[in-house]
User: Fold Alkyldihydroxyacetonephosphate synthase from Lentzea guizhouensis.
Amino acid sequence: MEAVCTVSLLDADRLEHAGGLSYLDLLRHRGHGDLPVPDAVVAPASPEEVAEVLRVCVEHDVAVVPFGGGTSVVGGVEALRGPKSAVVALDLAGLGSLVSVDPLSRVAVLQAGITGPEAERLLGEHGFTLGHFPQSFERATIGGFAATRSAGQASSGYGRFEDMVESVRLATPVGEWVVGAAPASAAGPDLKQLVIGSEGQFGVITEVSLRVRPRPYGPRYEGFVVDGWEAGVSLVRSLAQDGVLADITRLSDEHETEVALALAGSKASVVTRYLRFRGVAKPCLVILGWECRSRSATMSSLSGHRVVRLGRAMGASWLHGRYNGPRQRDALLDAGVCVETLETATHWSRVSELRDAVRSALLAELGDAVVMCHISHAYETGASLYFTVLVPRSLEDPVGQWARAKVAASDAISRLGTITHHHAVGRDHQPWLENEIGSIGVDVLRAVKAQLDPTGILNPGKLL
Amino acid sequence: MEAVCTVSLLDADRLEHAGGLSYLDLLRHRGHGDLPVPDAVVAPASPEEVAEVLRVCVEHDVAVVPFGGGTSVVGGVEALRGPKSAVVALDLAGLGSLVSVDPLSRVAVLQAGITGPEAERLLGEHGFTLGHFPQSFERATIGGFAATRSAGQASSGYGRFEDMVESVRLATPVGEWVVGAAPASAAGPDLKQLVIGSEGQFGVITEVSLRVRPRPYGPRYEGFVVDGWEAGVSLVRSLAQDGVLADITRLSDEHETEVALALAGSKASVVTRYLRFRGVAKPCLVILGWECRSRSATMSSLSGHRVVRLGRAMGASWLHGRYNGPRQRDALLDAGVCVETLETATHWSRVSELRDAVRSALLAELGDAVVMCHISHAYETGASLYFTVLVPRSLEDPVGQWARAKVAASDAISRLGTITHHHAVGRDHQPWLENEIGSIGVDVLRAVKAQLDPTGILNPGKLL
Assistant:
């Protein structure tokens, strides 16, 4: 292959681009199961070089796996070659520029390889924030956020990533496509929403034009406790339906709350005794954070509910640990713990039924597991549910142990909600996609793929 | 053709389904230019009957034009047969049921043929409103709103129609497709947004699941005046970017304001004198209406701007006439006036340049015309512009007179904004679509069309 940009064949580079960060990915890196490794890592430095790499890969019939931060937890960046004889990881870190800022319109164009922190730094120089803080924030990239329909912890305030996108620049095997022209349009279907969430199937996202906001002045995070899951759901629902959600709105169920309080260390027993004193039988933690929305509007709506305020220390504690999940996983694995997360969303009338169904499915499959759940994103019509599972790792069959639990949980999820609210489909959620979008939906995606990637070099084995 | 449902061959019925309500449509009904008339009007009474009609039309290779309220102003329901030997208008008025209401999730499923007022009546029985009030409200339908990415006068508060849609049920020639599963999802591209705005190309929308809201308690509408267009744009922009827009937010330019004040009759001179007294040199009218959003938030942000309050009478006057535009057009035509509207949207940094460009293009083409403009919908990153044009109708060539003006305006629009913010593409905006979505975008739409409507019976000659 002609070298149109930096190409590495080093084992260390190839291994670093072998899959994402799911529990099964981590196991694979530890020798459990096959670990597909790309034949090379290709690192273009501009949208033009990305286009040139695609041209060369079409010519040589080489599979291409677009690779941003490599934080996929659904097998979205596995180095699968499909029917091709070779596969390269397309590392987009070289696309790292802030292309332009329109301060009046509050629109900024960012290149795809920019990570969360770097985006905040670049925009911060202009007084702006993107406000997109998923748990993968520290490593994930603008292109990855768009390719997977990411949702950040503050999405109740700033919106999901797709809500921020004004336009997308996409390198496809049939040419460059810029999609999205105005803040809103009725010029046919919203093709931007076809590119967002396309998980590298239709092309490589090289630049994204995004709505930005002024950096928050004095953000504030607080902890609250309600008595029982149903009371919490009802509270979050009314905040959402009254239009007074905090930017960050998170409700933990009693199991997650128990763990959170236990982890609070020396303060834990004080808090627990205080809650008992206040007559809270089944504490469920609520974290609210205000960055751009009105705290007083939320607080005035809260007054209609029975809520115990735990104050800003609890909010600060959440803030401090907000990106800890991914960091702690290797240590937990070392300690012999299987740890993974799952997520979904559904309408309010099914939120509790869905939580119970997933919880039961996981417990039935895993036995003595800790299954915790929280609402991470709330909407007027429903909410997301995010599950964290911890269980002693099977020594004989750690891969099978989780694979079976994942199937059980996903079957339960797909009966009552979406198979994924913000983790994307990748390889892991594929078996449930057709149930959600119909065989016609799958055919439509295939038709678009055939149009844009006629030889099928792009990210084989994912999404479709 | 077998009769799977009511079929009418009566001239009166066929004529009633011959095109929409654009100025050129009205001229055609008055004998200027060709008026394509459907060969029959087919009126199914259920989603199943729609599917059956499509099956029969595929079998007999008959073109199908889905027909809701017939209010398209872009040629979206012209009875074109394309390469087919016959064309039927598919009148969806028989799909008139409220299918279900989930009051907890605030989601209602409405059939496609329900008109705006009927939707409000049906939802009102459950205490809800849809909050979708485009100027076509009185006749247009749920299916039409979805098929054209409609935006209502209160879209700053309730959102555009696509923001309200939870899922869509679509009858396609290859089978039924239900798309949309949860309040939000990362399960691949948002295919719902491919169906919304598809203008009958991919299938016939039979049911739409929609987010609803409680009926407003004490809505309030008020008039204000600012001095000059730029001051008004700046005011609306800050309301949008501060997140305190009224549900209805409308800014008229000085030309539209002049006409609005003149039409206010006996009060006009009082208002004009008052504004002169207050030192307003170039009055621009602002109408704000609150239905679900907070008036106090808007008002407190307004206090930072130089604004003259005209009070609730001016708001009531706007409310009274909010659907008058379409009603008055026939009378104006009778009086020898060419009257038509155009609309677009762009980012804030280009709003004024776009207004000037369209205004100049229209005046250059039409000579002594009245060209009025208002911002009808505001977003954080930009706004829509809505133009109303009045000019003495050419006696020799009324069709050519407007056709040339439309081309000039659309050329100007397509350089700086979207070719349509809420009127859709239909037949009239087709020449500018490729400029906006790229040839790749057009190819993608064609690929999806080929997948869902392989024999091309659906709405020939529109969108694509």
